[in-house]
Specification:
Helices cover 39% and strands 13% of the residues. By secondary structure, it is α/β, with parallel strands linked by helices. The chain has a 5-stranded mixed β-sheet with strand order 1-2-3-4-5, with helices on both faces. The longest helix has 35 residues.
Length: 253
Amino acid sequence: MNIMAAFSVSAADDIPQRPQPQRLVNDLAQIFSASQISSLEQKLVAFDDSTSNQITVVTVSDLNGYEPAEFATKIGIAWGVGSKDFNNGIVLLVKPKTESSSGQVSIQIGYGLEGAIPDAYCKRIIENDIIPHFKENDYFGGVDAAVDVLMGLASGEISEPRDGSDEEESDGIVLILFLFIMFLAIIAFSRKNKNSGKNGGSSGGSHRSGGPVIFYGPSSGSSSGYSGGSSSGGSFGGFGGGSFGGGGASGSW
């Protein structure tokens, strides 16, 4: 069944009505493949099952005159993303870029998660994890990366999203330390060679020969995000009546 047939748009608000059957990945703009939708849906359902926090991904072709933050907030309220008791829902909205319009993205946070995921963190996720992928036309990569960070923050497994400038600064420090260690190693080997020359005539005794010394350069790999829960997940049980108050951030490219 064409996914567009599962949705209707409210004439009053121009906001997509809650999908039937309910699901967490709602690709109205049709920017994901079937396998990508399935993979992302399973991840989000497993997260909902293990934490009760709900993240819905919504892609649309048109914001119908709304700002992305308002559009995403209206979806969160109309669909009831998150539970009624905890208001622990997240809406990740994507309006893809076209020849005649810029791309828009918004992350809106339910009341109950605003402490764990403040506006500044949402902005950082958009700038560092989403837009770089989107600029390469990799919509799934950007959404998947953002979802991992959002799940980590919502579940308390990470304290804050990565900052691009902090990462560059850290890499620079590691490189300097590596070069300094190499410099010390060169000096040490030089002194050892001089001492060996002085004692070259000695064939007896307990002369000790050092084994090879191996130095490892700085590792470029790093990861942050949610690592708990099940990767398979079951079927989505439905939205729980959560509410939103405008917490979050938006961006464009």
